[in-house]
Amino acid sequence: MKTKHVIDLEDLSLDELMEIIQLANRIKEKPSDYSEVCHGKILATLFYEPSTRTQMSFKTAMLRLGGSFIGFDNPQNSSVSKGESLKDTITVVGGYADIIAIRHPLEGTAKAASMYSAAPVINAGDGGHLHPTQTLTDVVTLYNEKGRLDNMCIGLCGDLKNGRTVHSLIKTMSHFKNNRFVLISTPELSVPQYIKDVMNVSDCEYTEVNSLKEAIPMLDVLYMTRIQQERFKSQEDYEKQKGIFVLDKEKLLNAKRDLKILHPLPRVDEITTDVDYDERAKYFAQTIYGMYARMALIMTMLNHPDKNAAPRIMPTHNLRCKNPNCITLTEKYLPSIFREVGGDMLICKYCDGRTLI
Ligand code: NCD
């Protein structure tokens, strides 16, 4: 794999992605062949935000490969509580561990971490931005459960604005031929502009609708998500959005027989529990695929030859990102790095936020 760090699943070519999917399947077929391949290697899990599945599946993956792990799941128990910068924490942990998985509430944190780490960095979720290893989990699930990654009508339902798993999944699936998206949300929680830009650039057909019931008959895949309460400005705003989209047995009566229902979990109330017994529900199987997907990713990334931290990166512009959730606003030493997209518009290379010059 060419890339050292995985901040976005698009850091991998499609061929590299397919190789990881195949490797995940080989591990799933015969785990005993892989039980010592990471012997002596250490994974650091730095979780600045709550997690059950992602954190545990990373740790389980490393243990099942014969390696071990260090880290924290509550930054208050680390020197972060004393005011240590991300840069310093990562510089140190990048020397202790062979690979790092990091989750943080602010967008662009994994990218920032990768600039200071000697060890490869995996983005385990950066605010409402991206979540590449959930997408790897989702594509391994779809490859096994649908037998293909192209020619699908994919419905995504719920909090499409703040749901980082949604953003990463659309980015990846838009590279496979003939996929189209049905985006089911309220207008307030529709996908961000940069994700629409991705679909437009790859000529992917998409429609934005507000009825799950009407959309369901046309779908090959339904990706349900929870409303991301922690990303709302106020409890009142959240209350207005919760409970609007609920998948139940009745709605499934009109769905295709070979529909696959995915959900990154945790579920709140958006899928009723009786759906769990429908053979089309794949969200618990998905968590197991996720463990094999992470085993394959860790194995592959540990082979990267570059064991040094990147040279110092210089700012490209003399202004700050306008996204209030961007990591550069709190970790002020980070150099401003933008991509120019013509006109007055700059795109922040940490968080993909748009800033006008
Ligand atoms: C997701 C996340 O953290 O973004 N969960 C996960 O990693 N499996 C989805 C969510 O929290 O709703």
How would you characterize this protein structure?
The chain has 357 residues and is α/β, with parallel strands linked by helices. The protein has eleven helices and twelve strands. It has a five-stranded parallel sheet, covered by helices on one side. A four-stranded parallel sheet has the order 2-1-3-4, sandwiched between helices. It has a three-stranded antiparallel sheet with strand order 10-11-12, with no helix packed on it. Strand 1 (42-47), helix 2 (53-64) and strand 2 form a beta-alpha-beta unit. The longest helix has 20 residues, at 283-302. The mean pLDDT is 97. Residues 53-54, 125, 131, 134, 164-165, 225-226, 228, 264-266 line the site of N-carbamoyl-L-aspartate (NCD).
Quick gist of this model?
This protein is of the alpha/beta class and 357 residues long. The chain has helices at residues 14-29, 53-64, 86-96, 109-114, 132-145, 164-173, 193-201, 212-215, 235-241, 249-252, 283-302, and strands at 42-47, 68-72, 99-104, 121-126, 153-157, 180-184, 206-209, 221-224, 260-262, 338-340, 345-348, 354-356. It has a five-stranded parallel β-sheet with strand order 7-6-5-8-9, with helices on one face. The protein has a four-stranded parallel β-sheet with strand order 2-1-3-4, with helices on both faces.
